[in-house]
Design brief:
The protein is built from 11 helices and 12 strands. The protein is of the alpha/beta class and 319 residues long. It is globular.
Length: 319
């Protein structure tokens, strides 16, 4: 690990794509943020130098009355109203929408058309397989994805929620057959969940030049520091975040975040993202904001550099 985190505003490369060091999560669009709130957050993100927005066709099918595609629809409306499609890198995912589950070739080819329609665009910059589907050979879905790249509907491909073995198998197939190759990996990874990425999966990514774009970068909000013993938080994700208080690691990490944040006059969320950005293979952590006020400490990651003792403190607290 380098002595300092490379948190400049320098864009990161994902294959042919050039992305900002913070990816804005779109899971809240059409869920906890309505269209007007979502547009305000998107405008502020772009004004702050961001260009990399992450969504999925399934967002937010888990909400009563929703059927999936709500986030893509909000994002598509925003792109159309702002006329900025060529300036934005859009990542979306296939395989988890209630009507298009799994990674069969026919499923992928049908689902992508729905995503393109909702996003009001004729191409997707980064298209992830949302969850691995081990009932399908890697050759089938990679060939289907390659067809989309060759047709100009997708620029680059990525994988999310995949094992080290299947990632290695997928990369080997792409190299051997000369088809589209994963350039990005979206793992569950943060200061209170390191073993979900570090180890074999991270090693495969590093060996093969695949960049990580971690989700749950703030552990459902826990690493913002707003969850403390005896406090109640009004959030749709509060139950998931608060559970970290019941572990040994959670409070220890909060204490370390507070120490580093105080030294920089920064928010704990900014420090948590800066730690992620400093990790080998990580290109850009994903974090979402329901309001522009929540967005500010996320964007601040581009201006925060952690020194070696601070990284060590956070490493030891989160071990």
């Amino acid at each position: 690990m380098s002595a300092t985190s490379n948190n400049s505003r320098t864009p990161r490369a994902l294959g042919s794509l050039s992305v900002s060091p913070l990816s804005l999560g779109g899971n809240v669009f059409g869920w906890t943020a309505d269209e007007a709130e979502s547009f305000a957050v998107l405008d502020a993100y772009v004004a702050g130098g961001g260009n990399f927005i992450d969504t999925a066709d399934v967002y937010s099918a888990w909400v009563p009355g929703n059927k999936g595609g709500e986030s893509e629809t909000v994002l598509g409306n925003w792109l159309a109203s702002r006329g900025n499609r060529d300036d934005i890198v859009i990542a979306t995912k296939v395989g988890a929408h209630p009507d298009y589950k799994g990674l069969a070739a026919a499923t992928i080819k049908s689902a992508v058309e729905e995503s393109l329609t909702r996003l009001r665009t004729d191409y997707i910059d980064l298209y992830y397989t949302h969850y691995d589907d081990e009932s399908v050979e890697v050759g089938e879905f990679l060939t289907a994805l390659d067809d989309l790249v060759r047709a100009g509907k997708v620029r680059e491909i990525g994988a999310s929620n995949i094992s080290a073995q299947r990632l290695e198998e997928s990369l080997a197939f792409s190299d051997r057959e000369g088809v589209a190759r994963y350039v990005a990996l979206q793992p569950h990874y943060n200061l209170v969940s390191r073993d979900t990425y570090e180890g074999e999966l991270a090693d495969v990514a590093a060996r093969n030049g695949v960049s990580a774009v971690p989700y749950y970068a703030l552990a459902s909000g826990f690493l913002t520091g707003k969850y403390r013993p005896g406090t109640a938080v009004d959030s749709a994700r509060s139950g998931k975040a608060a559970q970290y208080l019941d572990t040994d690691r959670g409070p220890r990490v909060l204490e370390a975040l507070d120490t580093v944040a105080a030294a920089h006059g920064a928010e704990p969320a900014t420090v948590a993202l800066a730690w992620l950005a400093a990790q080998p293979t990580v290109a850009a952590p994903i974090a979402s904001a329901r309001t522009t006020a929540q967005l500010a400490p996320l964007l601040a990651v581009t201006d925060l550099t952690l020194n070696a003792p601070e990284l060590t403190l956070l490493n030891e607290a989160s071990a």
